[in-house]
């Protein structure tokens, strides 16, 4: 079986909550390890929770599901895409420093 195309993978990430959370965590990780150079000064070297802890936290968070369902019902417009917010921008991705907001917030 052939690997999915980039377009297929992106569609899966937009329509499947598990795929979406994988993408969110991958983006968080790329910020703190310095892969995303443009924003490295804001994130590089900060702590990040283990991915399984993130997945369990997100999956059980009512605010994630509210945002997810609203986003899906609206046709997945970018401004209301669920997004992770660090409450204190000087701290990393830890359970006590994260909340779900929309992309536009």
Structure report:
With 105 residues, the chain is mainly α. It is built from 5 helices and 2 strands, in the order αααααββ. It has a two-stranded antiparallel sheet. Helix 1 packs across helix 2 (17-32) and helix 2 packs across helix 4 (51-59). It is globular and about 35 Å long. The N and C termini lie far apart (40 Å). The model has no long low-confidence stretch (mean pLDDT 89).
Mean pLDDT: 89
Distance, first to last CA: 40 Å
List segments where confidence is low: pLDDT < 50 over at least 5 consecutive residues. none
Our count of helices gives 5
Determine the structural class based on helices, strands and strand pairing.
Answer: mainly alpha
- Rg over C-alpha atoms, rounded to the nearest angstrom: 14 Å
Our estimate of the beta-strand percent is 5-15%
Find the count of extended strands (DSSP E, 2+ residues).
Answer: 2
Quick synopsis:
This protein is mainly alpha-helical. A two-stranded antiparallel ribbon has the order 1-2. The protein has helices at 6-15, 17-32, 40-43, 51-59, 62-73, and strands at 82-86, 98-102.
Write the layout of secondary structure elements.
Blueprint: H1 6-15, H2 17-32, H3 40-43, H4 51-59, H5 62-73, E1 82-86, E2 98-102
